[in-house]
Design goal:
Belongs to the HicA mRNA interferase family. The protein is α+β, with helices and mostly antiparallel strands. It is 36% helix and 36% strand.
């Protein structure tokens, strides 16, 4: 079974690729890419690790691929 992804790695990679924090309400943070206001990536920040299904959703919404996250380790 694949391991969950660390939240710190996801946040670091999103910021490195031009995403900025738009708002946060409770444990959910909304990120948008500079210059692309249509897609929003929402992350639950109360956990240290992100489940695989949530990570796949982040990949789809952000337009990034798994290699982008592996290269930032």
């Amino acid at each position: 079974m694949p391991r969950p992804i660390k939240l710190s790695l996801v946040l670091k990679t999103l910021r490195k690729n031009g995403f900025v924090l738009v708002s946060q309400r409770g444990s959910h943070a909304k990120f948008r890419k500079i210059g692309n206001q249509t897609k929003t990536t929402i992350i639950k920040t109360s956990k240290k690790e992100i489940p695989l299904g949530t990570f796949k959703s982040i990949l789809e919404l952000s337009g990034l691929n798994e290699e982008d996250f592996r290269n930032d380790k």
